Amino acid sequence: MKELVEELYLTNRGFVTDDYEQCLDYIDEYKLNLDIHAYESGTEIWDSWVVPQKWSVNDAYVAVDGDRIIDYDDHPLHLISYSEPFEATITKSELLDHVHTHSEMSDAIPWHFRQNYRPWDSEWGFCARQETVDSLDSETYEVCIETEFEDDEMLVGEHHIEGQRDETILLAAHLDHTGMANDDLAGVAVGCELMNRLQQRESLTYSYTFLIVQELVGSAAYFATNGDKIDDVQYGIFLEMPGNDNRILLQRTFTGETRLDRVATYVLNRTVDDGEVGPFRSQIGNDEIVFESPGFEIPTVSVTRFPYEEYHTHFDNPEIISEHRLERYCSYLERVIEVLESDFVPMRTFEGMPSLANPKYDLYIDPNEIEARDTGNIHEFRHRILRYLDGEHTAFDIADKFDLDYEFVRSYLEEFEACGLITTADPLADSDRSA
Fold it and tell me: Which residue intervals define the domain DUF2172 in the entry (predicted)?
């Protein structure tokens, strides 16, 4: 996963740029086959978001007597996103009106990004270390920004895996953050790896779609033009900033009350030593707000390792990412999906109380062996399980209620099915449960 990040991170991934297209081409060739959705520059989405023009950078620098002191070639974050062209010799005061620095880190080149989302705004400018700005001692500066704008297409990548059911779990990450690695190129890398692992399974209950988007605008464009696909989406998972040295933060869906919320929280608490759970967009926000927007309202969690001090600076590079942390993050998502994939609703076929100790069943849980199981409330479980085989609870619901290992409960109920004591059904969608 980290290999993909190292290959692509130091590129100008504005919303519509040659570098963005080349990154999609690389992913399509080496990591994951993509279907491409194209949206023409100037297209209005929901009568408000606007697809920007293609932005090309030929050169950009600030110089004193020909010596470049701020140079796009040194790092693409030195130029603000979608900077207008500009060329002149100007005063120090005029220059400082167009140079952005980090408010807390004097040695960091920050990311100035708003014009990605606001093509109706127009500004030229640079980003620089505060220490560079503090060292400026000339009265005049040569400024050269050679950028070009032209109509083109914004590209959204999609990979879809067909499962046994049309109901789809939608995963997404954004590719657009110029010259950065963890935010969110690393999320794209995890998404590619996770989809490849799902592809290798013999069968899948759900269908899966992975979107590689431009933050907010790319998701909005896809949602606005793919209503037939969106109708099948049951849940969303946004992958962001997975590789830095911090705990995994699960931010719940808008309501925080869906089956996805409960499964994701359960798996986090049982498999991640330093996990944290928070409300919807409580610490950081991304495209889950598009997925959950009015008219769609797809329950979407986000999984992240935010915050980290390198965020939105040139220090967000592959050095802060480890393959181990990417793998732990990916494995957590796999476990969440495994529960969603294998869960079922048990429905009893009997009345009264069968003797589970009867040799034809052999399902009795001996109280003398309970302590050795080292699980949750198994005492209550063994006394109450028969009443929960009512078609209203899933195997996961039962495991969660009694704080038991999901695999133990699922396997135990599969033995009930093998003995003819229950039949099983697919879990209902959250919308069906509330109807």
Answer: 54-148
